[in-house]
Amino acid sequence: MAKKKAIHDFYQMKKSKEKVTWLTSYDFPTAQFAQKAGLDMILVGDSLGMCVYGYKGTIPVTMDQCILHCDAVRRGAPDTFIVGDMPFMSYQISDSKAVYNAGRFLKEADMDAIKLEGGTRVVSRIKAIVNAGILVVAHIGLTPQSTGILGGHKVQGRTAREAELVVEDALAIQAAGAHMLLVEAVPPEVTGYIAQTLSIPVFSIGAGKECDGQLLIVSDLIGQFQAFTPRFVKKYCDVATIITDAMKAYCKDVRKGNFPEEQHCYHMPEEEKQIFLTRIQDRTNHRP
Ligand code: KIV
Hints:
The protein has 288 residues and is of the alpha/beta class. 45% of the residues lie in helices and 13% in strands. It has helices spanning 7-15, 28-37, 48-51, 63-76, 95-109, 123-131, 147-150, 160-176, 188-197, 218-221, 239-256, 270-285; strands spanning 20-24, 41-44, 81-85, 113-117, 136-141, 180-184, 202-205, 213-216.
């Protein structure tokens, strides 16, 4: 079992150009698989709203839901660096609310860090949370909690002006004290510049490979999420088909009387069976 990584390991990996592997997880068994597979980091993303609860987006997700899922994931991956994702309205209202809710991830679910969305507009939140001694991962580019303002799930930084704004966000969050940065759905040339310029580790989800590590949503990677598949996703297996086929085979077996078979039954020891059969025979004989 590899030793659990800490923040300085990710800085060291950036220095030595060793890529960091990062995946989301939302439950105990998936977290066990992630740790066994040797992932460097896990994100308990508010994407659980879509991947676990079937919501259209992340907006309805609550702090209590996030804490419950983080707690389950921590039990599944006790030796992995885990980031808890702050849901919509858990940090937007005030610095003090943001610090209180960030603290809940550590106190109630033993998270190693929190993630929040936004660049220049969340600078004071980042400073407040970092001042409370909590590791912060900032998330810029396509930020799913503000797709209303962004005009949908759109690639960010495609024009020179937009790209400059993404770079300004990245510089602002580093200056505010964020410890790591996630860039989502941004052209690789922009992410590459940011990763070279910043001293903190910079990760990509749909933002190319010129950075310090990659994040994917586990439900996309295993082919479980059915609603849509973004262009940046690589599906490594198709569990939706595997699970559906297994369920169909089970229905067929039950309907045909082929399940359960002998090996699935808990038989009585022969002696007990004979006593039981005699007793029920007596009951039948004495019935009025
Ligand atoms: O919630 C999540 O999984 C995320 C990713 C989309 C980056 O924030």
